[in-house]
UniProtKB/TrEMBL annotation:
It holds the Pfam family 2-Hacid_dh. Belongs to the D-isomer specific 2-hydroxyacid dehydrogenase family. One of its GO terms (molecular function) is glyoxylate reductase (NADPH) activity. This is Glyoxylate reductase. One of its GO terms (cellular component) is cytosol. Residues 67-294 form the D-isomer specific 2-hydroxyacid dehydrogenase catalytic domain.
């Protein structure tokens, strides 16, 4: 990988940058250039760029994948290594919403526990958990929820070979038959805004929505309205429609727990993802099969 020109679209996890530099890669940092100058930067460095490392801030959407395939550009991703962290966060958000953990923490910090008791909350164990998208992450969430004696149901593009999990043919049917609805499907044209007013209303004033998928899975204005009006019981959100902008109405709601798109952001997983990026680059350079090819 000596002198391999690598375009970096966004600041990297330090370990990954150090490993690329240690291997002699020439890093071209697009983010050091003003956005209005990105095209000029790319044109000026086109002859040097032999690989691109990007993240969710500047990903490779479906249209770009098609163009890559047409031009013979190989594309890889980092699946599996983030599954545990995202699934852990989904369960954590559900418990945090039902037990109102952030509000309880604030209650203690401001000294209120010295003068009174904290209101009763709701248990997570035994709740009916519905999972929208039973892929790698969805299945990991289901397995974790089972440990809490939660009945599992799901909706996916097709029925899965998991007889203990009940399949529903539509998101609306799923929402009507669960207490907690977890969004863990891929974002496609079909799943964009899949959580609409009808699905939210079906989940109802005792229901909780957990989104660790993508912000565009949810009609955010309908979600905010439902939470403010009490038509939805609560929400745990790691992703938002217009990140990093978040509806301010959510800031005042104790039945909403939010995290800043950190589903896979642990040291361990970031290092594993970095190692996989490097392994794919090395395989490409020496002409071996890619480890996790997309295109």
């Amino acid at each position: 990988m000596e002198s391999l020109g690598v375009l970096i679209t966004y600041p990297l996890f330090p370990y990954l940058e150090q490993e690329l530099l240690r291997r002699g890669c020439h890093l071209l940092r697009l983010y050091h250039s003003p956005e209005t100058n990105h095209l000029a930067f790319l044109r000026a460095n086109a002859s040097s760029i032999r690989a691109v490392v990007c993240d969710t801030h500047c990903g490779c959407r479906q249209g770009r994948l098609v163009k890559c395939k047409e031009r013979g550009v190989r594309v890889t991703n980092t699946p599996d290594v983030l599954t545990d962290d995202v699934a852990d966060l989904a369960i954590g958000l559900a418990i945090a919403v039902l037990r109102k953990l952030p509000a309880a923490d604030r209650f203690v910090r401001k000294g209120a526990s010295k003068t009174g008791g904290y209101p009763l909350t709701t248990k997570f164990s035994g709740k009916r958990v519905g999972i929208l998208g039973l892929g790698r992450i969805g299945l990991a969430i289901a397995q974790r929820a089972e440990a809490f004696n939660c009945p599992i149901s799901y909706h996916s593009r097709s029925k899965k070979p998991h007889p203990n999990y009940k399949y529903y043919p539509s998101p609306l049917d799923l929402a009507s038959n669960c207490d907690i609805l977890v969004v863990s499907c891929a974002l496609t044209d079909e799943t964009r805004l899949i959580i609409n007013r009808a699905v939210i209303d079906a989940l109802g004033p005792q229901g909780v929505l957990i989104n660790i998928g993508r912000g565009h899975h949810v009609d955010e204005s309908e979600l905010v309205s439902a939470l403010v009006e009490g038509r939805l019981g609560g929400a745990g959100l790691d992703v938002f429609e217009n990140e990093p902008d978040i509806p301010e109405e959510l800031f005042q709601l104790d039945n909403v727990v939010m995290t800043p798109h950190v589903g896979s952001d642990t040291v361990e997983t970031s290092m594993a993802m970095a190692d996989l990026v490097i392994a794919n680059l090395e395989a490409h350079v020496i002409g071996r099969p890619l480890l996790t090819p997309v295109v």
